[in-house]
Amino acid sequence: xxxxxxxxxxxxxxxxxxxxxxxxxxxxxxxxxxxxxxxxxxxxxxxxxxxxxxxxxxxxxxxxxxxxxxxxxxxxxxxxxxxxxxxxxxxxxxxxxxxxxxxxxxxxxxxxxxxxxxxxxxxxxxxxxxxxxxxxxxxxxxxxxxxxxxxxxxxxxxxxxxxxxxxxxxxxxxxxxxxxxxxxxxxxxxxxxxxxxxxxxxxxxxxxxxxxxxxxxxxxxxxxxxxxxxxxxxxxxxxxxxxx
Length: 244
Fold this sequence. Notes:
- With 244 residues, this protein is mostly beta strands.
- It folds into three domains: 1-31, no CATH class; 41-83, no CATH class; 89-243, Jelly Rolls, CATH 2.60.120.
- The protein has helices at residues 4-8, 19-23, 32-37, and strands at residues 51-56, 59-63, 71-75, 78-82, 89-99, 101-104, 113-123, 130-134, 142-146, 149-152, 159-160, 176-183, 192-201, 206-215, 224-228, 233-243.
- It has an eight-stranded antiparallel sheet with strand order 5-16-7-12-13-14-9-10, with no helix packed on it. Strands 6-15-8-11 form a four-stranded antiparallel sheet, with no helix packed on it. Strands 1-2 form a two-stranded antiparallel ribbon.
- A hairpin with an 8-residue loop joins strand 12 (176-183) and strand 13.
- The termini are far apart.
C-alpha cells in the first residue's frame, strides 16, 4: 500500500476514515507539523488592504494599508506608503502689491519651478508698464520672444509683461492678468528659462500676451520685485507656487 486511498480500502479497521480525508495527507514527505509551521498565518493580516512583505530572509511581515492617494515606495530597503513627492504645487505666498514697487523675498528653494499668478493689476495713476525684477535686479539681460517678435531688453530694464510687438501701457481702469513660470529657479549653475501668458487692456484694445525667454543669472532666485513705471499700483494680487 503506497497511497492514502489504499489505506482507506485496507480493511474494516480503517472504515471510519474516508478516502477524501486521507487524501489530505497524500504526498506528505516530512512531518506534518513541520510543514504547517513553515506556513504564514493569515492572522498576520489584520486590516483590509494589508499586504505581506519580507522584513528579512524567510521572515514575513505585515504592511498596513496606506492613506488615500499615497503610493507604495521603498524606504531603508523595505516597502512603505508615502505621499507622492513630485508633480504637486504648493502655495508659498499670497501678496497684495501696492505703491510703485513691492518686493517678495525669502522664496523657498525647495522646489523645481516657480509658478506665479498675477491678477487684478490696476494702476492708481497714469498708464505705465508692469514688470518684474528677479532678485530685485533690473540689470539682468532678458531675452523675450512675444508673438514671434523678438524683444532684447537692455541691462537697464525690467522684465515687462505688457509687451505686444511693442510696449502697450496698461489702462488705469482695467484689471490685467498673467501667469509666469520660472524653471529651475533655485539652480546656481545655469541661466533660468521662463514663460508667461496673460492679457491686458490699454485705452484702446485688449491684448493677449504670450512670451518666453531667459533670465541671465546663475544665482538662485530668492526674491521678486514687482514694479509699475507709470504710477502707483492700486490693486494687484500675486500668488507664488512651488512646483515639484
